Each structure stands twice: as C-alpha cells, then as structure tokens.
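Pair request: fold both.
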Amino acid sequence: MAGIFVPIVIGIALLAMVVWLICGATFEFAMTIAVSVLVVSCPCALGLATPTAIMVGTGRGASNGILIKSAEALETAHSVNVVVMDKTGTITKGNFVVQNIVPAKGVPLNEGELLWLAAKCESASTHPIARSILTAYEERGAEHGNSTVENIRELAGEGVIASVEGKTVLCGNVKLMEHSNIDLSGYHGTQGSTEVLLALDGRFLGHIDIADTVKPDAKQAIGRMKAQGLRTAMLTGDGQASADAVAQSIGIDEVHARLLPQDKLAALNEIREKNGAVMFVGDGINDAPVLAGADVGAAMGSGADAAIEAADVVFMKADLSSVPASVNIARSANIVSKENIIFALAVKLLVMVLGLTNHASMWLAVFADTGVAMLCVLNSVRILYKKFD
C-alpha cells in the first residue's frame, strides 16, 4: 500500500502548493497548505488499524484459553465456512469402556476367553480402544495361562494382527476383516457403539462393544457454530452406525466414517471444495497432516504433541466451546480492523479537503494523524471487554 499511497500524497501536496502560488498566495502560505496535507495523510492510523485489532484479538483469545500462533491464523479464522472435527478425543472424551462381549454363534469360546484373546492381541498397542480392552481384562482378573504373543503388527485405522500360540489373531474393525477375507455373515453390529471384531486363523469369533462418552458441552457448542452460520462435519475411522449415532445426538451436519488416517486429508479437501474455507479440530498424532492441510488447524491442548505442533490454534480447555469462541474472536477482530481503516480514511479525506481549501488548521491536521491513530487503538481495545463465552 505504501508504494501507491506515498507518491500520490506527495503529489497532491506539491500540486496544492503550486495551485495556491498560481492563485497569488505567498510562498509561506502555500507551503503551510502542503505541509498540512502531508501531516493529515501520514499513515500512522492505517498502519495501526489492523495490527492492533489482531494483537488485542490474540490476547483476548489467550485469556480464554485459546492460543493463536499467528496473525494469519486469526485473519483466516473469520472467513471459515465449515468446522470439521475428529471424533475420538475431540467430540468424545476418549475414555472407552467395554460394554458387551458377544461371541459369534457356533464359536466354542465364552466371553472371558474372547476378552483374553483380544487383550493378548492388543497388549502392545497404545490406542485408547486397546487400553480399554486391557483395562476390562485386568478388572475381570481372568487368567488363561501365559501364552506367547509374537509378530504383533498394528495397522493404522484398521487394528492389530498378532500370533498367539502359533495362531493368527485379527483384532480390529470391519475393514481389517474385509481386507483379510474373513466371512462376516454371522456378524450383527451394535448401533451407536465402537466395535472390535476378532478372528482366529481366518474364522470370525465375535465382537466386543466399546462405548465412548460424548463431551458434555458438545451439543451446545455445535448449536453455537450453527448460529454463527457454520456447517459442521465429522471425520472418524469408526463404523458408519457408531459415527451416525454420535453425529445425530449432537446435531452434526455431515459424517465421513470408516476413514484411514491418510483418507482424512482427502475428505477434508473434498469438503473444502464444496463449502470453502475449513477449520479442522483434532487431537491425535494421526490428525497432524489434516491439521497442517486445513485453512485453520486447531488442536486440543490435551492431545498429542505432533497435533499441537502442526496446529495454528491450540485450545487449552480441550472442549468444543472454544471453537465458536475462537471464530467469534476472529470475526470481531476483522470487524474492528475494517472499522479502523474506514474511520481513518474518512477522517483523513475530510480534513485533507478542508486543508486544501484553507478551512482546516494545523492542529486539526495533527488530530487527523495522531488523534485518529489513538482512536483506532482505543477501538481495538474494545475487543478485550467483549464476551465470547
């Protein structure tokens, strides 16, 4: 802006001086007019208009537990059209609990034996679902000998393959079973729960129902997002039925289920092509590429270090109410920035015209420069006293 603004202003000042000299004014008078124009047009207020709004907005976010890493993130957040969220740990608490153990018909295993097999298979995994199975096994105190577990392979977004007592055990979701050509004709899912399916040497054994708890503020936060005109979407590796049940309970508009970690970024890009700028909210290590690829990436402060590092915004409260609050702060900062620019330009233009016609004193010119700059700063400070909760 300076490359255009400065030459034009200097040209106007010189032209005004020449015109007044031609009209018979003294050199001192003509020079006073030119200096008044230069003082009025000094771009201090324009230089402060946006940075002060962004700085105050960033500080206001920090006081609300919203850490905004850059001015660009705050400026982009005001234009977001869609909020896309991961499910586990973001919408839900991530505290999985085993609800039911369901052996398949004709399988010579009881619930305890099925749980033992799942615990053995998941013994090396750190995934929250795996930890819930191990916790349930430990609480039941069931013992089935010290069987050896070998060749454990964890497949991202699918589950675990391991060798227990020389037999191949599959422990994961439907995708894992389908990719391993397991016959699931005897499988009947449970609506609204996350399910871990088990197979032994190519035979389906049954499934374990695991429930996660939706965060208490989720429904209200989604309602606030919709009131802001935002569309909401959820990405998850869980089954379609489980994902739909969670989305329906809190009012999410769009659901993409059974996604592998590498599929999430493609789903995000698809949503962006349809709706415009996207904010992605996640917390897991698998969410890091999606956080980096979103227009605005927001990570829960309780999440993985990789997610926090990749994000543009970090929510220290780790609840969804921070999402509409951050958008509200960004929109307020944008409005204040525009107010500052319009006010500064309007006052400067008015005083410049008055100065060119000798109807404005040097003191009024100084006000149009320094005074307007201070008013822009004070207008930005209003953000500190606005309620965003």
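--- second member of the pair ---
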Amino acid sequence: MTVMDPKRTRIEALFLEGNRHMAAGDAATAEACFNEAIQISPDFAEAYSNLALLLEKRGATDEAEVCYRRSLALNPDYPETNLNFGVFLADLKRFEEAEAAYSRACLLNPQSPAAWSNRGVLYACMKREEEAEQCYRKAMSLDVGYAMARFNLSYLLLRQGRFEEGWYCLEARDWYAALETYLECPRWQGEALLGKSLLIGYEAGHGDMIQFCRYAAVLKAQGSSHITIICHPALKTLFKTLNGVDAVIPFDDHIPASGWDFWTPPLSIPHFCKTRIDTIPASIPYLQAFPERIAQWQSMLPAEGIRVGLVWKGNPKFENDADRSIHVLDLLAPLGSVPNVRFISLQKGAGEDEAGHPPAALPLIHLGSQIKDFADSAAIVASLDLVISVDTAIAHLAGALGRPCWVLLPDYKTDWRWLAGRTDSPWYPEIMRLFRQPEMGNWSAVIAEVCGALNEFVQQRRRILVTPPPAVSSH
C-alpha cells in the first residue's frame, strides 16, 4: 500500500491552484499560492519560475530576477524558465544575457517554435536581421500554424521593403478578432468590388487608421458602390473629409452586424491590393481640415514668425513608448535658439503638464488641452509651417494633410512603416523628413541635427518671402 506524503500533496495542490488562478488572470491569488508552496518546499523550481513571471508582470523586476535565478539554480534544464528569463532580460535590453538564455532554451528544446521566434525578436532588436529571419523561419518550419513567428517576420520584411511576403505574413495578426466574430458579412480577400458595398473596420491606433484610411479611395476606384469606415471616436469628424468614404461610424456607436457585401481590416488592404514600395497610393493630401475650424483656431496662433508644431510624447500604453517618446521636454530646449520660430504644442494627454510649464529656453503656445478631436488638430496643423513630432498619430495627420513634417525616430525597434535607413517616407512623399537616432537613446544628436535643419528651413522661408516676383515683360 502506497502512503501519500501530506506535505508533497499540499505542495502539488498549491502549485495546481496557482496555475489555475494564473490562467484565470487572478495574479494576486496565484502569487500567494506559489509563495506558500515555496515556503513549504524551498527547492520547488517550477514554483519559483511561475512566481517570477507574475512578479515581472506587476513590475517587481528585482524580485522577479531573484526568482528566475533561483529557479534556474535548482533546475537549469527547464526550457520554459530559460525562455521566460530570456524574454525578461530582452525587455531590460540586457541583450547578451538574453541571447544566452534563448540559446539555452533552444538547446534544451530545439522543437520549440516559441523559443526560436523569441530568439528572432531579440536578433531583430539587435539589428542582426539575417539571424532574426533564420530564427523566424525555423519556428515556422517547426509549426506552420505558429502565427507569432509569421507576424514577427512580417515586421522584419516590411521594414526591409519586402512588401510581397511582408503583407502576407502580417495577416497572422489577430487584432481585429472581436470585430470579425461580431460581423456577419464575409471578409474581403481580393474579390472584384464592382457594385459591391464594403465595410473597412478599425484596428490598432489613431496613426494606423490615418495612414491606411487612404485605401478607401483605392477600393472606390475598383468599383465599390458604397464604403463605410469604422474608426476611433476622435477621428469621426475628420474622416468625413476622406475621399471614397460614404459613411463613418465611430466604434463607440452602434455598428450593424450586417448590411455590406464584404468587410476588411484596414491593414489587410495593402496585401490584397498587392502594394509594393513603388505602388504605395500616395495622393497627398487625402484628408482635409474644415475651413470653419481653421478660422476658429487662427486667433490662438501667432501672427508672425515661422509656426512650428511640436509633439514629443505618444501614448504611454504603446509597447515601445519608452523609446519612441522624448520623456523630458528639456531635451527639445535647443530648438528655442533658432530665431524667428514660434513653437506650438499639440501635445494631448501625456506631456500636457510639461507643455504648460516649458523650459525658459523653449517658449510654447500650448493648445493641446483645448483640442477636442483630430478635426481640431487638423485645423491647427493646416495653419502651421512645419510639424516636428515623434512617431505618433500627429505625424501621420500632418502627412495626410500634405503639411511638412519631421519625424524623430528611435534607434531601438524603429517601426516598420518608416523602413530602414531612409530619411524620407514613400507613404508621404516630399512631405516627410525622418531624423533617426544614431544609437539607442541618443535624442541629443537628433535634436542637434533638427536644430541645423530648422535654421535652414527658416532661412529658406525668409528668402521666399523677400524674393520679389519676376518682372513681367510688356512685349
């Protein structure tokens, strides 16, 4: 007769209970279960591993690392712990340590597509793109249905301008799953649109919608009889100016489940339209500011000088916001040394407090707090000479309006849509100029380059203003 060890039974019960609560999203209860299991059995490697994951998710970085290392000390051959520790280290940008952890995970479980895919993400972050691609393709060869590897590969390919396979791989995303489940009409996959009605859904952020709403005109030109677009509420009024769109529905309003022949997510349209670098639909502008809104904002803008709009922060919930945003307005202070420039803050949400109390060297007219929606933002941008922005929605808005815009880009995880190594954007030709960090975190070098360019911009504008028109011959 086998005698059950009560202590062992209790430990296993706590571990299973912790796993159930973790799967259900009850992190606090799961954490309590794993802590109790560890108190009873200090050599329980798997409990330390799961506890580390929970601590990491709630931001207890130091405690999480202690638990990861304790788990690996007890069981260095557990692939999942090595993989999770690699993710942890990569998020902290401790790349060499992360590479060692991922290598160990792949060695222990070479059939794990997750291990190879995450290793590929690390190499992409380190700009070792050939190795990253090899890792993604290895993951896909192990499991053809492993969507994350294909999605990760899409970013690499699109950044390199390899659009044909890039758009195909981007179809592995599932951001629009809730909308797809709700709608009753079939999803458009390139079928003829002559005489057909189409719903363009929403996905991702405001900037994505502004960039890809241009495809409404493309699909209308293919013969669609009626196009409806769903968008973020703040875009509703602005999108009424969009060429090719017959109706605009904000996603907080009632959305019928049927009534169209097809529906499509906006980021899928380039794939089915076979968009390549040289066929990007870039008829600029494709959005317009309302004249009455322009008139409304005119009195708040300076009457003299070069008007330059500033945006230095994006949505803090964005995964790479720590690198794409400039978190201290003081870094932009050197721009204030450029003569004859009046700076207007378009900062909305994050950064509004700084805009209200700017550095003495950078006087700002802060309008962001008074902006109600993107139609207001468009009216202001339409009245400016230039917009200088980090990678956020206002940059896309300026481009869509056909207004000069300089985009300040991070070196780490530069978004795929800006491609690699370019100082211009084929999405906004002759409108946009890109300024890239020379290395991770170096905004000072970017601002110095922008200062030089802004001086030239001001001098060029002044030459245009003072140069008399050519004399008209009387003959």
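Observation on the second member. The chain has a mean pLDDT of 94.
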